[in-house]
Write a structure and sequence with these properties.
By secondary structure, the protein is an alpha/beta fold. It contains 14 helices and 15 strands. About 45% of the residues are buried.
Length: about 375
Amino acid sequence: MKIAIIYNTMKDLSSRTALLSELLDLGYQVVAIAPFDGGEDRISALGVKCFDIRLSRWGVQPWREVGTLGVLWNLLKRERPDTVLAFTIKPIIYGSVAARLAGVPRMVSVVTGLGFMFVESSQFHRLKQNFASILYRLALRFNEKVLFQNRDDMELFLSRGVVAPSKAIRIPGSGVDTSFFSPRHGEGEEGYFLLVSRMLWDKGIELYVNAARRVRLKYPKARFLLVGPLDDNPAAIPAEILERWNSEGVIEYVGATHDVRSYLARCSVYVLPSFYREGIPRTNLEALAMGKPVVTTDMPGCRETVVDGENGILIPPRNEDALVEAMETFLKDPAIAIKMGAVSRKLAVDRFRSQTVHRLIIEAVKGATDRGGTQ
């Protein structure tokens, strides 16, 4: 059996090499379709056949989008997979339509979060939400199963009639390798906060910086680290602003890294004040697995990683005062971080292990293979 996986970038897909390996071990031929951006070498090394496509992550340019749809149709027609598995909005929408036109028997999609569009309530954003819902509804009717990374996204799609209840399955995010990400006893430093993210305003990074500035007035020894790459998103934070914050000394921005474990090991508290509709933030899961308490927002996806007061603190989105108060909680009593961190580790092992997520995805793919396509 052959499965084609469509993703927004090869680099993002390369974070799922364990899933690709499991599919290969089960005897599937695996084809990866995504824009080449450096991750394709790691994927090809597994024995996966990779194809480059032009796919803009941001905005819609009609003729270019039609061209992308045509390329996908041609690829799928030529490769003739038995199943297409798509992740993120454009691969889901274009992949579902192209698979249908190419006569692919089965389609499974994974909704990895709804982003900023489904947060704002202005008339313009409501129009965009309605348009996206129409496109999703069109695409997902060709899917046998649709997997959602959090309860909020699944309930929204069900309430809007975007997906049939019989097709919807909830999975616990992307999962986390609890062996690779595991506690390192004795390495955590008191008063050491960490945020790992792409440098986007929507991730609450400015809120983190402003809160850090206020906390350091009372606790000058507290440290606030910021780790992650620059981005080409329209909501990206310019490099000069990051440099200004760094020069001010309020945070330490270290840029991108291939392995966040050393930073997670050193921190005492992980923070992600995102006001973006995440699937389930991968960095939150990695922090849980490393035995760290998490301060995050009471937002779709984010809220699923924290039992408030047990393994971390949930704060309202865009609430700087609440973030300052949460950070000071750990500075007033550092022992709380150790206690909550132990609960985080247990939560990661019990609920968010990557093996659990992979099993659910593979069951959906195998179920589609066993039962045939939908009409």
